[in-house]
């Protein structure tokens, strides 16, 4: 029975068929249970763990996802590199539905989410100037372009609290600040990965233009889900390609993020 993996995928239920020879693992963490059991299987020559971000039945809205438990669970199973496919809205008229954005920066506009493992026992300042793994980003951009996707290889993801969508005024403000895409789940997921010295790469599928970009009634939840579902096979293929091109030996800054820091407790190495 396989219960270890070095690559993790956090995504929607449509990614279950990504894996071959699947074993389901129930993981306990100091932060409660993760969103669901973790499925571990093979993608080519790599052992990969899959965790449905919202749960199999989509029971966790973005602001209630147990982010700390999710990342801790993956790390305790051996995961060192995380791929995070998600649906986003575009803040740019020239980036339309169907585009793949691999952001290099992030803006946190959430509130009230538990966003650190180091909130007791001593001060720990983890570097986060560049929130995404450069190695994972390069692999994702190359895979997207090789597959014929319209691929944007950089940009800023602004993460809002949800579960509501942005007002038009908020959306226009995000655009005026030079930000590229907007979503609800990319933070604190990315930061928690960094706090565990894991690589994290966002694979952002644009499903719509945000409310301030074009006229109309604004985006709806049903439209987002329908568009992502129509593209999930394509996204699975992309994830498979990225997994296959990730190096097993890490030389990026993510791997050394905790070097020299005095941690208040033992991490799940």
Question: How would you portray this structure in words?
Answer:
There is one protein chain. By secondary structure, this protein is α/β, with parallel strands linked by helices. The protein has one domain: 3-Layer(aba) Sandwich (Rossmann fold). The chain has six helices and eleven strands. Strands 1, 2, 3, 4, 5, 6, 7, 8, 9, 10 and 11 form an eleven-stranded mixed beta sheet that branches. The protein starts with 6 loop residues before the first strand and ends in a 24-residue tail after the last helix. The model has no long low-confidence stretch (mean pLDDT 91).
Superfamily (CATH H level) name: Nucleoside phosphorylase domain
Q: What's the total number of strands?
A: 11
Instruction: Give me the Rg, rounded.
Output: 17 Å
Number of domains: 1
Q: Which percent range fits the helix content?
A: 10-25%
Order of helices and strands: EEEEHEEEHEEHEHEHH
Total helices: the number is 6
Residue share in β-strands: 15-25%
Rounded average pLDDT:
91
Distance between the termini: 20 Å
Uncertain segments are none
CATH class wording:
Alpha Beta
Tell me the CATH topology: Rossmann fold
Class based on secondary structure composition and strand pairing: alpha/beta
Largest sheet: 11 strands, mixed
Assign an overall shape: globular
CATH architecture: 3-Layer(aba) Sandwich
């Amino acid at each position: 029975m396989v219960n270890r993996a070095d690559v993790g995928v956090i995504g929607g239920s449509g990614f279950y068929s990504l894996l071959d020879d699947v074993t389901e693992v129930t993981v306990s963490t100091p932060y409660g249970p993760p969103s669901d059991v973790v499925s571990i299987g093979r993608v080519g020559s790599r052992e990969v763990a899959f965790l449905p971000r919202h749960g199999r039945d989509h029971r966790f809205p973005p602001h209630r996802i147990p982010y700390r438990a999710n990342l801790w669970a993956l790390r305790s199973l051996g995961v060192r590199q995380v791929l995070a496919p998600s649906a986003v809205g575009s803040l740019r008229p020239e980036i339309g539905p169907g585009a793949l954005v691999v952001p290099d920066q992030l803006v946190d506009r959430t509130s009230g989410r538990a966003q650190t493992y180091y909130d007791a026992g001593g001060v720990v300042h983890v570097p986060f100037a560049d929130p995404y793994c450069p190695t994972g980003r390069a692999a994702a951009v190359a895979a997207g372009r090789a597959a014929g996707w319209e691929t944007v290889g950089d940009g800023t993801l602004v993460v809002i609290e949800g579960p509501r969508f942005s007002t038009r005024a908020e959306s226009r403000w995000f655009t005026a600040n030079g930000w590229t895409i907007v979503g609800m789940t990319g933070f604190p997921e990315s930061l928690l990965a960094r706090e565990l010295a894991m690589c994290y790469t966002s694979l952002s599928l644009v499903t719509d233009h945000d409310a301030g970009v074009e006229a109309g009634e604004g985006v709806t939840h049903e439209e987002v889900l329908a568009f992502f579902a129509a593209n999930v096979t394509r996204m699975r293929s992309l994830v498979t390609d990225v997994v296959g091109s990730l190096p097993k030996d890490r030389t990026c800054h993510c791997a050394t993020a905790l070097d020299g820091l005095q941690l208040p407790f033992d991490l799940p190495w």
